Amino acid sequence: MGELIVIGHGQTEWSLSGRHAGRTDVALTEAGEAAAGALAPRLAHRRLVAVFSSPLSRAMRTAELAGLTGVTPDRDLLEWDYGGYEGLTAEQIREARPGWDLWRDGVVPGDAGHPHPGTHSRLATGDGQPVISARNAP
């Protein structure tokens, strides 16, 4: 039986400070690059059928430093669109909207552009071999 391996992008300044980085292309920190590079030995001997990544540089760089080759950028793997909350922390949002909860209240303007539920099932293909998705993690 095959595996689906999901790798979250390495640390960014915004993830370190709790800021919502959704569609903003924030670079990895040195610690984020080191963590991504530390994955390379663990992945080096795996036979990979396909590797997909968000096209954002933090995800593509994580995949590169992890030693992954042949990475296919896939817009379906973009992180959520935080709209007017992009770059803000949950605490900052709650100052303007007391009790705000992403799942209940969404973002302004409009709804978050969450990945479509079928995205991960579409990626879980590959003749029984592992498939890796270097996807930005919350």
Describe this structure in words.
- By secondary structure, the protein is an alpha/beta fold.
- It contains seven helices and four strands; from the N terminus they run βαααβαβαααβ.
- The chain has helices spanning 13-17, 30-38, 40-43, 57-65, 90-96, 102-105, 119-123, and strands at residues 4-7, 50-53, 71-73, 131-134.
- The chain has a four-stranded parallel β-sheet with strand order 1-4-2-3.
- β2, α4 (57-65) and β3 (71-73) form a beta-alpha-beta unit.
- α2 (30-38) packs across α4.
- The longest helix is centred in the first third of the chain and has 9 residues, at 30-38.
- It is elongated and about 50 Å long.
Give the tags.
138 residues, alpha/beta, four-stranded parallel sheet, 4 strands, elongated
Topology:
Elements: E1 4-7, H1 13-17, H2 30-38, H3 40-43, E2 50-53, H4 57-65, E3 71-73, H5 90-96, H6 102-105, H7 119-123, E4 131-134
Parallel strand pairs: 1-4, 2-3, 2-4
Helix pairs in contact: 2-4
